[in-house]
Specification:
Layout: H1 21-43, H2 50-71, H3 82-107
Helix pairs in contact: 1-2
Length: 111
């Protein structure tokens, strides 16, 4: 009788690596840079007021994108994109709650 090797799991090629050391290092360096930029800009009095708010918001959004791409591996997802759809639904729910709360607080103030 011949013996057949049945390998399930690790060596069958169905498990794809999520990222390389290079991509993690790139993501980490970008995260550090996007953290340092607003810190230096605000604490060094380079920007103030609305300009500081713009710098903070832009770097926060870029930081969010870096986290999704390099650490959550959103770009490596196969079809159907369930994680992306769940993320979009979560963002819509959070924005609805936050913007609805701000709207209620703004227009229901006691004079």
């Amino acid at each position: 009788m011949s013996q057949q090797s049945h390998s399930h799991g690790v060596n069958d090629g169905s498990h794809e690596p999520h990222g390389s050391l290079k991509s993690y290092v790139i993501g980490f360096v970008l995260s550090l840079i996007l953290t340092i930029i607003p810190l230096v800009a605000v604490l060094g009095d380079m920007v103030s007021g609305n300009a500081a708010l713009v710098v903070l918001l832009v770097t926060a959004v870029l930081q969010f994108v870096v986290q999704l791409v390099f650490f959550m591996h959103l770009r490596e997802e196969k079809k159907p994109r369930w994680n992306l759809m769940a993320l979009i639904l979560g963002i819509v729910i959070v924005l609805t709650i936050v913007l609805g709360s701000v709207w209620i607080m703004e227009y229901n103030q006691v004079a």
